[in-house]
Write a structure and sequence with these properties.
single chain; 303 residues; alpha/beta; two-stranded antiparallel sheet; 42% helix; 16% strand; glucose-6-phosphate dehydrogenase (coenzyme F420) activity; F420-dependent glucose-6-phosphate dehydrogenase; alkanesulfonate monooxygenase activity; Luciferase-like_dom
Length: 303
Amino acid sequence: MVDHGWPLRFGLFLPPEAGAPLVEIAQEADRYGLDLIGIQDQPYLHDHVDMLAVMGTVLAVTRRVRVFPAVACLPLRPPAALAKTMAGLDVLSGGRVELGLGAGGSPDGIASYGGPRLRTGEAREALAEAVQIIRMLWSGQHGLDHDRGQYRLEGAVPGPVPAHPIGIWLGVSGPRSLEVAGRIADGWVGTTRFVPPHRLAAALRRLDEAALQAERHPAELRRIYQLHGRIDESGSRGFLYGPVEQWVEEMSMLALGYGIDSFLYAGDPDRLGTFALEIVPAVRERVARERAASARGRRPVLQ
């Protein structure tokens, strides 16, 4: 694996639980200077506020942080309607929206809300098709038709055009889905739960190989990683379960050794300040130092 040199970004993974102080947490992330807020999308959960409602609210009460679905449940978010909503939110927020998109991780939950129960291959094909449709609708062209696969367009007139080129980041973990992401996506969203560190190298290798086969440079893809763990000063209990120094070391390793460029904190919101004010600047400083050393011809050495 290689460090592709992207500027590092840090953010928050936000499950939209109805009982949580979502507005206050989002505003705190914005005040701390975090770059991203990724909002979970599982609309079939009874205790979750709808992701799109949370996105609109968060964008309205923050000033600089970028907001995206982490990741949108495609079977319950038809691509044409999703493209319209994301473009509108981007315009209204002054260009602070990105799009994380997934094939849907709970067939039973999706079916309970009237969505299709797709086989794995069908879901993967629908995801690739949705990326194509969304990009068509963001292009500003009129009279768009699409008459194959899972979705249809018949003379669609899109608009508004997004305020900036919205990235489409695919949240996938299976080998063939990673190949789809490598071929067509602007980025990949992974999580330590589904792609833990011991599987990360193989996943990123498949992503990079698919990009090369599609005549793309792997560095074109952003790599976003959700960090499920606990900041715990009492000692280490495994990857990202330990003190600040351990988080700094392990996140620096993810950036320099695996090319992860964007990190979403998915731990206890009460420790968000520790993450943003202690861990983030230390990781930035360490990665900058090691990149500078590497540019001078020395291999980065993690201590």
